[in-house]
Write a structure and sequence with these properties.
Elements (H helix, E strand, L loop, with lengths): L12 E4 L5 E6 L5 E8 L13 H8 L11 H8 L2 E7 L4 E8 L3 H13 L7 H19 L6 H9 L14 H4 L4 H11 L5 E7 L3 H12 L22 E7 L5 E9 L4 H14 L5 H7 L4 E9 L4 E10 L4 H21 L3 H18 L9 H12 L4 H11 L2 H12 L4 E7 L1 H5 L24 E4 L5 E6 L5 E9 L12 H11 L3 H11 L2 E6 L3 E9 L3 H13 L5 H19 L2 H14 L15 H4 L4 H11 L5 E7 L3 H11 L27 E5 L6 E9 L7 H11 L6 H9 L3 E7 L7 E9 L4 H18 L3 H13 L8 H13 L10 H6 L3 H11 L4 E6 L1 H8 L7 E5 L2
Parallel strand pairs: 2-6, 7-11, 13-17, 18-22, 18-23
Antiparallel strand pairs: 1-2, 3-5, 3-6, 4-5, 8-10, 8-11, 9-10, 12-13, 14-16, 14-17, 15-16, 19-21, 19-22, 20-21
Helix pairs in contact: 1-4, 2-28, 3-8, 9-12, 9-15, 10-11, 11-15, 17-19, 17-20, 17-23, 19-24, 25-28, 25-31, 27-31
Length: about 900
C-alpha cells in the first residue's frame, strides 16, 4: 500500500513588532471571516506555590472590560457576530480567539490590544469576587460529572509537589480564594505582554492589509520583563503506583499513565504514533483485544501534550461490573504494551495510524479558527515547536517513522514507572431504593457575512432526492444521508432499535473490514438517530469521496444483520445509556419527554435514541430487519452533498452508489405528531434524586412549534436572547450578576412536529431553591413583558453577523442544507438568513416568548436530601420526587 502523504502545510507570513509581539498571517478566502487569535506563553505551570488556579481566574477576567473598552466581551461578541469564541487556560499557554466578520477586524484588533494593555486598571474587587464564584461553579460542575477530577488526580500522583505539573489547571479552590487584585495585576504585568504573545490572523486577510492595523493598535504597547523559563523536565516515575477510588460513575474505568517527553520532541511524536496503533479506532490492537471481545465498552490511548513533559494515557471502561473485569483489562493492556515495544508495530499499522492525524488535520483546518482550526495550528506550532510550520514537520516525521524506531522509543519510556487509577461505582448507587490611553477607539461597525450556496436538486427514478450545495475549493466533501423515521418510528418496547440499526448501517455490508477501508480512504461515517429521521453523515477528501459514499450506500441498502452484530451493537449502546444515566443533564432529558408529551406521543421516547437496558434486551435481528424494511426505501430518503462538485457530478455519484435501491409500492406509516397538551409553568417541580451530587441541574422544558420559514427565525433568536451564553437574559442574571451558575444553555433539536425547547443550567446545591424561583420569575416576566430592544438586538445581530462563522466546513453546510430540505424550508432560507434574522424586532421575539414561555415543566436533578427543604418551602410550586432512571 502506498505511503500516506502528509497534507500541505499552512503557509503563514510573519513579522515581529519592536516590542516583541510576533504576528502570523495566513490567507484563506473561502469565507469572509477572520480568526483573531492571541496566544500568551503562560499557564498554570507558571503559578507560584500557594497561588494555584490564578492563571484560569485571569482567563475569566479577560472577558470583563478594560479601561478604555469597559463593555464585557460577551456583549461585544453578541453585537458583532463573533463565533468560535475561545478562552482557554492550559498548563503552558493561555489562548483567546474568535472568528469574526472580516469588516470588524480593525475593531477586534483594537479590543485585543486593550485586553493586553489596559485590563489591570479596570480590575475591581467586585469583578474578582464574581469571577472567582463563577470558577468555583465551573469546578463543581466538572466534578459532578462522571469521572470528574481524574486529570487532577493523575497530576498529583504522577509528579512530585515541586514539579509545575503536580497541579492541573483549575488548581486548589482554597488557594484560589486567597487571590487578590494585586496578584492578578502582577500576573498581567509579567505575562500578558506583547513580548510574551503571538497574534495569529487566519482567513480573508493578507499581510499587506493587516500589518498597518496591527502596528497601529499593538505597536505602542510596552513590553514586559524578560521571562526565563524551563524548557524540559520530564521526570519519569521511578516505580509503578496504583490507586482505587469510588465515584458516582456508571461503570468501572481504568487509567494508566506514563510521564513522557514534551511536545516538540522526536520522542513525543513517535509515542503519538505508537498510541494510535495501540488504541485509536476499531482496527487498533486494544480495541480488538478489549472491545471486540466484550471486556470493555470503550478504550482509547491519548497523549496529554505539554511543554515540559507529557502524559501517555490508556483509558478503558469495563463492560460489566466487578473488580475482576478491570483486572483482566489491565493484564491485557500490559501484554499489548509489552508486545508492541518488543516486536514493534507493523509497517501497515504505522501507515494506518498516519491516516488518523492526517484526516483530522484536513477536517479541522477547514475552519479558520476554533479548536484545531488554522489559527490554532499555527499558534500551537509557534509556541511548542518554535516555528509556525511545525505541524507540517511533525506530520512529515510521522510519515518517515520506522517500526523499529517507534518500538525503541516506546521501550525507552513505557518500561518506566506508571500510575494506574481505577475508578469504581459507589455501591450505594446500585442499592438506592427510591490598550493604552494614546490609542483611539476604532469605529465599531458590523460586517457582511458569508453567502450560503444555492442548492440544486434532482430526484432519481427511484424517488431518492439529491440536493447539492457547491463549495468551490473545498478539500472535504460531506454528505448527509437521511431516511425518514427516527425516534418517532421505533416502538417504545424496543427503544434503541434505531440506534442498533444505524450502527449496523454505518458498519456497511462488510463490517469486518469497514474500519480499515474507511481509514485508508480518509473517510468518516457517523450514524445519528434524530426525532424523525435516521441519518448517516459521510465525509472524505474530494478525491476519495465517491468510494466512501459507495461504501456508505451499501450499508444503507443492505446492512449485515446478524446475531453477533446486533449483540455487539446492543452492548455498545447499553454502555452509552449507562453513561447517560450518570450525567445530570441527560438524566433531566430522560424524564422530560413523558412530562412534556404524555406517554403515547412519538416524541415521548428517550430523546437520545439509545434506549435502556430493558428495551435493548428485546431488540432482535428480526426486529432490526423489519425496521429496516419498513423505513429504508429511496422514496423516503434524501442525500444532501456539500463540496467542490456540481449537481451533475453529484447526481452521477449518488446514482452509481445507490444503483441497486428500488422503490416499493406499499405505503409508508406516518407517526401522529399532534400538538401535545401544554403544561402550565410552575404547576409542579419534578426532582430526580441523584445522591451525592455536588451540583443541581435545572432544566425547564417547553414545546415549540415545528420548523418553518415563519417560526424558525423567531424561536432561534428567542433562545439566544433568553438562554444561550453569558449575554442572554438568564446568563447575565444567574452567572454575571448572582454568580450562581457557570453558564446557561439551550437544547433545541430538529423535529418535524412540536419540538423540545429546553433551558439548562447547573447551580451549587445551596442556591437551588433561589435559582428555581429566579428562573420562574424571569420566565413569567419575559412572557408578560417581552424582551427589550437591546436584548433582541444583541441576539439578532449575533446570529446575523456570525452566520459566516457557521458555514466554514462542508459538514456544516451539508447539515444546514439538510435541515432546509428535510423540514421544507425555502431554498433561499439560509441564503437570506443573515438579513432576515437581522430584521427581527423585539416585538416579534416578545410575541414568540408570550406563545412559548407560559407553558413549561421544571426538572431538577440533584441530591434530594439537600434540595428537599429548599424546593418544598412555603409558596413554592408542589414538588414531585423521582428516582434516577
Amino acid at each position: 500500500m502506498a505511503a500516506v502523504a502528509p497534507p500541505a502545510p499552512l503557509a503563514a507570513d510573519s513579522f515581529i513588532l519592536p516590542n516583541g509581539l510576533r504576528v502570523l498571517v495566513h490567507t484563506d478566502r473561502k469565507a469572509p471571516v477572520v480568526s483573531v487569535d492571541v496566544l500568551y506563553h503562560v499557564g498554570s505551570k507558571d503559578e507560584q506555590p500557594g497561588k494555584s488556579g490564578l492563571a484560569h481566574l485571569v482567563e475569566h477576567l479577560m472577558f470583563y472590560g478594560t479601561e478604555h473598552a469597559p463593555t464585557d466581551w460577551f456583549a461585544v461578541a453578541a453585537r458583532y457576530g463573533f463565533t468560535d469564541l475561545v478562552g482557554l487556560t492550559h498548563n503552558d499557554v493561555s489562548r483567546f480567539a474568535q472568528t469574526i466578520p472580516v469588516a470588524t477586524l480593525e475593531t477586534t484588533l483594537w479590543l485585543e490590544a486593550q485586553r493586553m494593555a489596559n485590563l489591570a486598571p479596570a480590575l475591581t474587587q467586585q469583578k474578582l469576587d464574581a469571577q472567582r464564584r463563577v470558577v468555583e461553579n465551573e469546578v463543581a460542575q466538572g466534578l459532578n460529572e462522571p469521572y470528574g477530577g481524574v486529570l487532577e488526580r493523575i497530576a498529583r500522583r504522577s509528579y512530585p509537589p515541586d514539579h509545575p505539573y503536580h497541579r492541573e489547571v483549575l488548581g486548589d479552590m482554597a488557594e484560589l480564594r486567597t487571590a487578590s487584585v494585586e496578584d492578578v495585576r502582577a500576573w498581567l504585568g509579567r505575562y500578558y505582554t506583547p513580548n510574551n504573545a503571538v497574534l495569529i490572523l487566519a482567513g480573508d486577510v493578507d499581510l499587506a492589509s493587516v500589518r498597518p492595523m496591527v502596528e497601529r493598535h499593538f505597536g505602542p504597547l510596552t513590553p514586559g520583563p524578560r521571562i526565563e523559563r524551563l524548557r524540559r523536565w520530564t521526570l519519569p516515575m521511578d516505580a509503578d503506583r496504583h490507586e482505587r477510588v469510588e465515584q458516582r460513575v456508571p461503570r468501572a474505568r481504568l487509567y494508566r499513565s506514563w510521564n513522557i517527553p514534551g511536545i516538540g520532541t522526536t520522542e513525543f511524536d513517535h509515542l503519538r504514533l505508537l498510541g494510535d496503533v495501540l488504541g485509536s479506532g476499531a482496527a487498533s490492537r486494544l480495541h480488538r483485544a478489549l472491545v471486540a471481545t466484550g471486556i470493555a465498552s470503550d478504550v482509547s490511548v491519548w497523549l496529554h501534550g505539554r511543554e515540559l513533559s507529557s502524559s501517555f494515557i490508556i483509558q478503558a471502561t469495563a463492560n460489566a461490573r466487578g473488580d475482576s473485569v478491570l483486572a483482566v483489562a489491565g493484564r491485557i493492556i500490559d501484554a499489548e504494551v509489552a508486545r508492541i515495544i518488543v516486536d514493534g508495530p507493523t509497517s501497515e499499522e504505522l501507515r494506518s495510524a498516519l491516516r488518523g492525524p492526517r484526516n483530522w488535520f484536513l477536517r479541522a483546518t477547514e475552519r479558520v479558527g476554533g479548536y484545531g482550526g488554522q489559527s490554532d495550528q499555527l499558534g500551537w506550532s509557534q509556541v511548542f515547536g518554535g516555528r509556525s510550520d511545525y505541524h507540517a514537520l511533525q506530520m512529515t516525521a510521522w510519515a518517515e517513522a520506522k517500526p523499529e524506531g517507534v518500538a525503541a522509543i516506546g521501550a525507552a519510556w513505557l518500561r518506566r514507572g506508571s500510575y494506574t487509577l481505577e475508578v469504581h461505582p459507589i455501591r450505594e448507587l446500585t442499592s438506592h431504593d427510591s490598550v493604552r490611553d494614546t490609542i483611539a477607539p476604532a469605529v465599531l461597525e458590523g460586517g457582511a457575512t458569508a453567502a450560503f450556496p444555492t442548492p440544486s436538486e434532482r430526484t432519481l427514478p427511484s424517488g431518492l432526492r439529491v440536493v447539492v450545495l457547491p463549495r468551490p475549493g473545498a478539500r472535504i466533501t460531506a454528505a448527509r444521508i437521511i431516511i425518514g423515521g427516527g425516534v418517532a418510528a421505533v416502538p417504545a418496547e424496543i427503544a434503541g432499535a434505531g440506534a442498533v440499526l444505524m450502527r449496523l448501517v454505518a458498519a456497511g455490508a462488510d463490517p469486518k473490514h469497514r474500519a480499515e477501508k474507511l481509514s485508508a480512504l480518509g473517510g468518516e461515517v457517523m450514524p445519528v438517530v434524530g426525532f424523525d429521521g435516521f441519518s448517516l453523515d459521510v465525509n472524505a477528501p474530494g478525491s476519495t469521496f465517491a468510494a466512501v459514499l459507495t461504501g456508505a450506500a451499501a450499508g444503507v441498502v443492505s446492512p449485515m444483520v446478524s446475531d453477533s452484530g446486533v449483540a455487539a451493537a446492543r452492548r455498545e449502546l447499553a454502555a452509552a445509556a449507562r453513561g447517560d444515566s450518570a450525567t445530570a443533564r441527560t438524566q433531566a432529558r430522560r424524564v422530560l419527554p413523558a412530562l412534556l408529551y404524555g406517554e403515547t406521543h412519538p416524541y415521548a421516547a428517550d430523546w437520545s435514541g439509545l434506549g435502556r437496558s430493558t428495551t435493548l434486551d428485546r431488540v432482535t435481528p428480526e426486529a432490526i430487519t423489519m425496521l429496516h424494511r419498513t423505513w429504508f426505501r429511496p422514496e423516503n430518503a434524501m442525500v444532501v452533498i456539500a463540496g467542490d462538485l456540481d449537481v451533475v457530478t453529484a447526481e452521477r455519484l449518488v446514482s452509481t452508489a445507490f444503483s441497486g435501491w428500488r422503490a416499493r409500492p406499499d405505503s409508508l406509516p406516518r407517526p401522529s405528531l399532534s400538538q401535545p397538551m401544554p403544561r402550565r409553568l410552575g404547576d409542579t417541580i419534578v426532582v430526580v434524586d441523584q445522591p451525592g451530587a455536588t451540583q443541581a441541574e435545572i432544566a425547564v422544558g417547553f414545546v415549540a412549534p415545528p420548523p418553518s420559514d415563519a417560526t424558525e427565525l423567531r424561536f432561534e433568536a428567542l433562545g439566544r436572547a433568553f438562554a444561550i451564553g453569558s449575554s442572554s437574559r438568564l446568563g447575565r442574571n444567574l452567572r454575571e450578576t448572582k454568580n450562581w451558575a457557570y453558564g446557561t444553555a439551550l437544547f433545541r433539536p430538529d423535529a418535524a412536529g412540536y419540538r423540545p425547547f429546553v433551558v439548562h443550567t447547573a447551580v451549587r446545591p445551596e442556591h437551588t431553591g433561589d435559582a428555581v424561583a429566579e428562573l420562574l420569575r424571569e420566565l413569567r416576566t419575559v412572557a408578560a413583558n417581552g424582551l427589550s430592544d437591546d436584548e433582541a438586538g444583541r441576539a439578532t445581530t449575533f446570529l446575523s453577523t456570525g452566520f459566516g462563522g457557521r458555514t466554514q466546513t462542508s459538514d456544516a453546510v451539508a447539515a444546514l442544507g439538510a435541515r432546509a430540505a428535510r423540514y421544507d424550508l425555502s431554498d433561499t432560507f439560509f441564503a437570506n438568513y443573515p438579513a432576515a434574522i437581522g430584521r427581527l424586532t423585539a416585538t416579534e421575539l416578545s410575541a414568540a416568548a408570550a406563545e412559548l414561555l407560559p407553558y413549561a415543566v421544571v426538572v431538577v436533578v440533584g441530591d434530594w436530601r439537600v434540595l428537599e427543604v429548599q424546593l418544598t418551602a412555603a409558596g413554592r410550586p408542589p414538588v414531585k420526587r423521582l428516582d434516577a432512571r
